[in-house]
Design brief:
The complex is a heterodimer.
Chain A: E1 4-7, E2 10-12, E3 19-25, E4 33-38, E5 45-49, E6 53-54, E7 62-67, E8 70-75, E9 84-93, E10 96-100, E11 104-107
Parallel strand pairs in A: 2-11
Antiparallel strand pairs in A: 1-3, 3-8, 4-5, 4-9, 5-6, 7-8, 9-10, 9-11
Chain B: E1 3-6, E2 10-12, E3 18-25, E4 34-39, E5 46-51, E6 63-65, E7 73-78, E8 83-88, E9 97-104, E10 113-116, E11 120-124
Parallel strand pairs in B: 2-11
Antiparallel strand pairs in B: 1-3, 3-8, 4-5, 4-9, 5-6, 7-8, 9-10, 9-11
The chains are: A mainly beta, B mainly beta.
């Protein structure tokens, strides 16, 4: 099974700050990596798919990069509404497998 | 309106089974896989498996289950009511979690979960 790690587990930043979250896979997953935002009591929301593609309607301050085993998620200018937990998720179709990272809690 | 609406909260005894439903609206139900993901209190999401609701899919390939749940989960769908179901058997307290259904966007969306249900709380006690 592919294991996912994220760092940091949590962070506190100020409005306007640049925030960077990293996600590492235990083996090469190419670009098969997505990023989700989850607010308390709500379902996760897709922000980035295939490592770097912005989901429709998601603000452009969110971005992603990376391939292979190392990935980065960036919020270019943190806003109050970005307070949430962020998860990376890998996927494999052979055999089908989906694994989430442990999450990064972002606070302001 | 494109949405997935799940059934209400459940409280079950250890050893019992639970069945959660997920009704789709606003899109062609048979076009996209439905996945089931759960989230225990304070934990990250955990994938249980998926179902292809297209009736043309063979029985052998319509579902995929995570190894951990393979012996006690069953996922089905009813295209006449555009609803997917997830049954989990032999419940223990470790199964206490919010259970989500999610629509997979297909290859053009990187097989990501781009539409989620509101979640169903299952308490085993």
């Amino acid at each position: 099974d592919i294991q996912m790690t994220q760092s940091p587990p949590s962070l506190s930043a100020s409005v306007g700050d640049r925030v960077i979250i990293t996600c590492q896979a235990s083996q090469d997953i190419s670009y098969y990596l997505h990023w989700y935002q989850q607010k308390p009591g709500k379902a996760p929301k897709l922000l980035i798919y295939d490592a770097s593609n912005l989901e429709t309607g998601v603000p452009s301050r969110f971005s992603g990069s990376g391939s292979g085993t190392d990935f980065t998620f960036t919020i270019s200018s943190l806003q109050p509404e970005d307070t949430a937990t962020y998860y990376c998720q890998q996927y494999d179709n052979h055999p089908p497998e989906r694994t989430f990272g442990p999450g990064t809690k972002v606070e302001i | 309106q494109v949405q997935l609406v799940q059934s209400g909260a459940e409280v079950k005894k250890p050893g019992a089974s639970v069945r959660v439903s997920c009704k789709a609206s606003g899109y062609t139900f048979t076009d996209h896989f439905i996945h089931w993901i759960r989230q225990a209190p304070g934990q990250g999401p955990e994938w249980l498996g998926s179902i292809n609701p297209n009736p043309a899919a063979s029985v052998a390939t319509a579902t995929d289950y995570a190894q951990k749940f393979r012996d006690r989960v069953t996922m089905t769908s009813d295209t006449s009511v555009k609803t997917a179901y997830m049954e989990l058997r032999s419940l223990t307290s470790d199964d206490t979690a919010v259970y989500y259904c999610a629509e997979e966007g297909g290859p053009q969306k990187g097989y990501a979960f781009h539409l989620w249900g509101q979640g169903t709380m299952v308490i085993v006690s």
